[in-house]
Fold this sequence. Notes:
The complex is a heterodimer.
Chain A: E1 4-15, E2 18-30, E3 35-39, H1 46-53, E4 61-66, E5 69-70, H2 76-86, E6 87-90, H3 102-113, H4 117-130, H5 146-158, E7 164-168, H6 176-193, E8 196-201, H7 204-207, E9 212-217, E10 220-226
Helix pairs in contact in A: 3-4, 3-5, 4-5
Chain B: H1 4-19, H2 23-60, E1 66-69, E2 83-84, H3 88-95, E3 101-113, E4 118-126, H4 128-135, H5 137-140, E5 141-144, E6 154-158, H6 159-165, E7 172-178, E8 184-195, H7 200-205, E9 206-210, H8 211-218, E10 223-224, E11 226-230, H9 238-247, E12 253-256, H10 257-260, H11 262-300, H12 302-310, H13 315-345, E13 352-353, H14 358-363, E14 369-370, H15 376-402, H16 406-410
Parallel strand pairs in B: 4-9, 6-8
Antiparallel strand pairs in B: 1-11, 1-12, 2-10, 3-4, 3-7, 3-11, 5-8, 6-9, 7-8, 13-14
Helix pairs in contact in B: 1-13, 2-11, 2-13, 2-15, 11-15, 13-15
Amino acid sequence: MSAIRCRQLCKTFKQGDEIITGLDHIDLDIETGEFVCLSGPSGSGKTTLLNAIGGLDTPDSGEIHMGDIRVDKLERGPLADMRLHHIGFVFQAYNLIPVLSAQENVEFVMEVQGVPVAERARKALDILKEVGLEGMEDRRPAQLSGGQQQRVAVARAIVSHPDLVLADEPTANLDSVSAAHLMGLFQELNENHRITFIISTHDKRVMSYAKRLIKMRDGKIIGDEAQ
Amino acid sequence: MTGLGSHFKIILTLSWRNLWRNHRRTAIMLGAISVGVWAMIFMTSLMRGMVDDMLNQGIRNLPGHIQIQHPDFLDDPSVVNSIGEPGGELLTALTQNGTRSWANRIRVPAVIASERESRGINLIGIEPAAEADITGLPAQISAGRFLESNQDKGVIIGAKLAERLETRLGKRVVIMSQDPDNNIAERGFRIVGIYQAELAAQEEFNVFAARATLQKLLKIEGLVSQIVLVDHDYRDVESLYRRVEAATPDGLEVKPWYEIDTYLAAMFNLMDGFVLVWVIIIFLALSFGLVNTLVMAIFERVREIGLIQALGMRPGLILYQILLESLLLLLIGLALGNLLALVTIKPLESGLDLSAVAEGMAMMGVGSVIYPSLTLYDVLLANVVVVLLGILTSILPAWRASQLDPVRALNTH
Lengths: 227, 413
């Protein structure tokens, strides 16, 4: 499912009177099970590309295919369904729903998917244990540190084994130990479950985990190499 | 996609917890809804009580719930438009179970004179035992006694009329009217009772004597002016009306109270409209607070809405979630408001004394004590209006939240 194909993807933003190029005729193919890092300076288009692939943002022109799905043509409802069933998101910050506990946050996606109560509780507890948050299931986000919150977000993104995980600067707010642990977890999921990862990052240590590194600048891909 | 039912638990959880994120704001809004609902129900019960009192007084003070009379009697209430005392099928219908009480009456225009003054009056011949249950006249006697039998030789006049005639209890007055042959019929009566009515006009014009005594005076033995019936509730006289009308001989007219006193009928019919307008006015005041609360609640969690959109919650579910949040707020407010109304109305069931404004109340035909009337219809109306309009008012902010652009929402600070 997760083979991604982008063709001539363009996106511009208006900031005051200025037109900013977010994506400039991007052509990109990502195969199922790849572990890809998008790197580049701020404003290079990494997040815009992630958002477009994840169906959060609509390109001005071009095509995005995810398997058989033409993502850029989907309406809001089907787009939401696609994200729900096929994509796990990890954002840089503000990842969790404040009124839900850690376990409930992890269960959230499964609950919307309609996974039975017992199954989703078991999966949530297992994954929280795996990300090192055993015993913190009932804590609300405000009672967790930034690193712990990010691990809950990661647990939520991967718990239902999506085809694709899109992570936008996932280690930006983590210390080096937590970051390494998180990347190790991503790597394991990628290798054992063939989940495709696309991670945007500035962090060289994160890039070192990637099997493919795509460099961006000014909305263009300026480098694409296997590692 | 699975339906709303399968997502209800998560939507309910989010709605309930979001509701209590800002305790103070929720408490203020609940207070406003509760007081609004209380005002709707409490004021409506007072208005209903006033109108009930006005109608009961108006109906009790002569018309009754149903009248049987000569077709020309209402236009020309003279002795020539008399009817026979009920008998046969009509008498059976009147005495059947279901008719609370009925009485024959004689009503003719007359002149009353004391040794000092004279006045035009309505001379009413009543059957004391039956009339007591219809008009409540015995309870209005402030001096002397009520009539004791159909042959009683005394009269009862109002306190206001006694004042006008410069007469008093125990004195004699002369009452003069016409018999069917247009001859003057007059005789002296001793004032055996003075009554005080809620309305001064009644005290001044209605004079009561015994039915048989007046029949003899007017030379109409076996005839009466009208037959008056009273049922259990003025709101529901239709079945009695139909039964009596079917049993009434041709040539007589049967009229329910709302055809006899169109002013009272108009008041009765307008009341539902008043209540609806009142409830909507209060709701409009409430709706500003409700919309403001929702808009603020949404504004504070735009990023969160963007997050749940990104995670795959459909816009429709976000709409339902925010509407459910609004519904929960409304339902809690309604429960508190209903409770508050019940707690404040119950102690007033024995009457709210408004003697301080008795004159004004009397001008409206209402007594100085109001008995709040709490009806299921009014309570349901207030609750249904608040829920329906509340949800309608919430739809726009909820819809706007569901249509947020996820990327913009996630980047909102």
